[in-house]
Amino acid sequence: GGSTDVYKLYGENIYYYDVNSLYPEAMLNPMPSKPIKYHRNMNNILFSEFFGFCTAKIVTPDNLEMPLLPLRLKNGTIIYPKGQWTGTYFSEELKTVMNYGYKVKPLYGYSFEKEYYFNDYVNYFYNLKKNANGPLRFIIKNLLNNLYGYFGRSLELIKTINVNSKEMIEISTHKL
């Protein structure tokens, strides 16, 4: 999944909500398909209409308590910084954090056509899930949730090593 943070908060008379089918809902959003154009300079681009990936200068609001936008450092560590930096992000993620006071200045990037890859799949299985119960409901729920997770995983983390000798066992365990 995504990132996980722990905060010690306090509240009285609060409500807890569980979101129904969050992964399938996310799969109904448009996704980038065919590249349209590389923009060397995005000064004249209307960002609200831009759909793609761009490198941008980011400035967080001064009163920000819980940062929303991740930044991957050169050593691979992911942090959620405050202040300002330059990073590469999906346009829709940047548009979302702008609603929370982030200032975003797009510098350069690629625009893409929008595609709704999974709408038929999600709608079909979600409608089946509404009336299913028991093991069938569990299987349908996994078909909905696991597809998104499968496409979102990092292939760099998956490592298959065939070990057929004592020497290879010692070498492979040191590389892990």
Secondary-structure content class: alpha+beta
The unreliable regions are 171-176
- The neighbouring-strand order within the major sheet is 1-6-2-5
Helicity range: 25-40%
Q: Can you summarize the main beta sheet?
A: 4 strands, antiparallel
How does this model look, in words?
- The protein is of the alpha+beta class.
- It has helices spanning about 20-25, 90-100, 120-130, 135-150, 165-175, and strands at about 30-40, 50-60, 70, 80, 85-90, 105-115.
- It has a four-stranded antiparallel β-sheet, with helices on one face.
- Residues about 170-175 have low confidence and may be disordered.
How does the SSE layout of this entry go?
Elements: H1 22-27, E1 31-39, E2 52-59, E3 71-72, E4 78-79, E5 84-90, H2 91-98, E6 103-115, H3 119-131, H4 134-152, H5 166-175
Antiparallel strand pairs: 1-6, 2-5, 2-6, 3-4
In short:
With 176 residues, the protein is of the alpha+beta class.
Quickly list its features.
23% strand, alpha+beta, 176 residues, four-stranded antiparallel sheet, two-stranded antiparallel sheet, disordered C terminus, 32% helix
